[in-house]
User: Fold these one by one.
Assistant:
Number 1:
Amino acid sequence: MARAARTPVRCAAHAADVVTYSPRVATAKAEETRERILDAALSLFRQRGFDETTMRDIAAEAGVATGAAYYYFRSKEELVMAFYVRTAEEAREVIPPLIARSHDLGKRIRAIIDTQLKQFEEHRRLMVALVRIGIDPKHPLSPFGEETGDMRNASIDFFRLALTESKPPITKDLANDLPRLLWLYQMGIILFWMFDESRGQRRTRALLDGTVDLVVRLVQISSLPMMGRLRKRLLAILRAVEG
């Protein structure tokens, strides 16, 4: 049976021509070639770095003509977007069952972040190279940009799922805004992890061990009736900032 592949579609609003993807039916051979090119690119990004790797290098590594590589991916940025998509698809398969294992909010948050770090573990060099892109929300590859919105929202939804029937329970007024705050917390952890040169990223693990418990305690405290007015004021500020 033919598999649904992702065909490049240009983002006309951006000169970089980074892409989104729309489904089409492709032959198994075409899909295998596309995946082989992506795997070759990720391997070279790890070995040489993103900036130092060329599309010609990637084609040679994948065992295809340079023109064939450009047929599937028009730039290295498109390859990064494909990596983002692949990672998001893997997360959708892995994370929900992990969340279902426990109602403990701390364990759920930790499971989500640990899974994301594990997915990115062998790609730290690429992630560091992309930091300059990430801080520009107008860049198509930025995790804060419009083109990555679906993947960002899917990641936020993991935290929304983690809050469902969690212990401690979450007040209704926090339920709408807390998933995004937890996603931002995760992004901070990932940024710290990118530049953590300790053995096995030991410092990142220590940071997670201490802050996940602290986050849960803060959520628990903010849910107390006596914190209602302060909680509403804080949420009003957050919503005003988000526009």
Number 2:
Amino acid sequence: MKSEIMNESYRKLEEMAVEGGANSVKFIPVENISVNEWVRQKCEFGCRLYAKRFTCPPYVQPVKDTKKRLKEYNTAMLIQFKDLTDRMQWKEIQNLMSGLEREAFLNGLYKAFAYTAGSCKLCDVCPAEELEKGSMFERKKCVNIRIARPSMESAGIDVYQTAKNAGYDLKVVPKENMCFTSFCLLLLE
């Protein structure tokens, strides 16, 4: 009986993801999620938004904590978004991921937690940018904390290897103006 309820919940989540713009959904064992320190290093020394979003390093958990947290789960939902043309599309994806996390929670998967793709786009200017400029006179925090989630990369998740482990063929996009594919992750139980 429990597995029937679980299967129904997973089916609902998959439907919701596809209706929200996902091209593909795969339920994967958490062991197939690749987590490595070097991924976080790429954020620190390669991303122009490093320390400018509360969902990015150094504000999110260290990689070692991601590894520990993943051990508390068995299953994850890997969600593919293909043919994206604008990074602002991530805002809709972030909202979808928040909705999926909530739906999972309401369906008894109370440990559900979402990881998005790329840097947060919920605010035009994140309060973290004020911290970077040295304006620490007042305590700044994320104004969208109920929706905002860290990206897979910011938490040390190797998106390319995780996608490969799930059977996807993910290629590097060599030019900014080309269509690209993003992945998000929803941890389930």
Number 3:
Amino acid sequence: MKLYVVPTPIGNLKDITLRAIEVLSKAECIICEDTRKTNILLSHYNIKGKKLIPYFAPKEEKKLPYILNLLKKHDCALVSDSGMPAILDPGYKLIKKAIEKKIPVEVLPGPSAFLTSIVGSGLPCFRFLFLGFLPKKGLENFLKKYKDFDFTIVFYESPKRILKVLNLIDEIFGNVYFVIAREISKIHEEYLRGNVKDLLKMLKEKKLKGELTCVFNPKFYSLNSNNLCM
């Protein structure tokens, strides 16, 4: 049998491919982070009668033997709450085990918040580094490692910590051009663009909600820079 890795919309439920709908309709089991969120998507596309298997950190290790056994007899689809499975979620462990067990794995292309945000930032996309969520401890030393990088950096951050992060960016990299993307493909989609000091002033008055995607380039102090990071 086969494991299908199926990206799901990061916001607007229409952001799904016909192929993804077809796979979700045919798969006998759907492995998901949160069955409630997956049910919303399935109901929207009138996909019924599916066996939903919760699979999330930190309990993924206990579920792996059960899921791998299912894959011996059934086609299963792996989804996350939003976007591409295995990026910052335990889906990669299942994919790795499936490959080790010689179970076919088919990955469908689809949406990802950090890729969408890089493109929408206006900064070069030729080379970039995705850092996921920044560490809670040792953040200053962590960021200093990238001071001399000459390509675009993208990471996820929470509204509670964004001011601290921006102050460190200003201290380490200077007043670089910085982009914060939020609510991608949702009703309140928003890109905040500007130099770090300008964003710091703005965010003292503006309260942000939801997960933030942050994009900057250590060598860009404005979009007029000729550095294309080729």
